[in-house]
Amino acid sequence: MIDKLFLLLIAVSFASCAPAQSRYQQPRLQVSSSQKLEYTVKSGDSLWRIAQRYGTSLQTLMKINSLGSASKLKVGQKIKVPSLAQKGGKIFSWPLKGQVLNFFGDNVDNSINRGLNIQALDSSKEVRASAKGKVIFSDQLKGWGQTIILRHTNDLYTIYANLDTCLIKEGVIVEKEQAIGQVASGKNGNYLLHFEIRKRYTPQDPLQYIN
After folding, report:
1. pTM of this structure
2. % helix, strand, coil for the chain, step of 5
């Protein structure tokens, strides 16, 4: 039941977006010596939006930043965000060898990017499973072409969109770094993979999870 609801929400959220090709500035994230992640507030940000972006709660952000419920954020203000490094390390690998064109949180075509857009840089367009998981979706997804979704432990999911070929079927268990598909070309002839990591239904910054 959870998988069906997850797929429905993914289909709705993806239908409102489209793959992007242009490069935007990387979100200003800094990791201090104490391994605490910091986010620099940008125009239009709110505590609720930051909490949703990083898969945490509003109450948690208020507590670790000593903020009141009516606190107003200022552009340039540093906000502490719970770091995955404090919860056991990074468990995912890169799904494609290439260059990140758009990072998590970027403004892409007036929409917040929920993952990473990775351009293949060489002749190898092979997409690999970022971690061991079960295939819960391997089919066409409106607006994103062939798409694969894997379910992992701890309510984590990975999404691989804009594929030319899917090499695996639903219900199969795949191993970490197993080949699962080939990335498709997009605008300007670039071979571009859209990759997401979600905790339940909440998009996560993949750079917090990838080795």
Report:
1. 0.66
2. 20, 35, 45
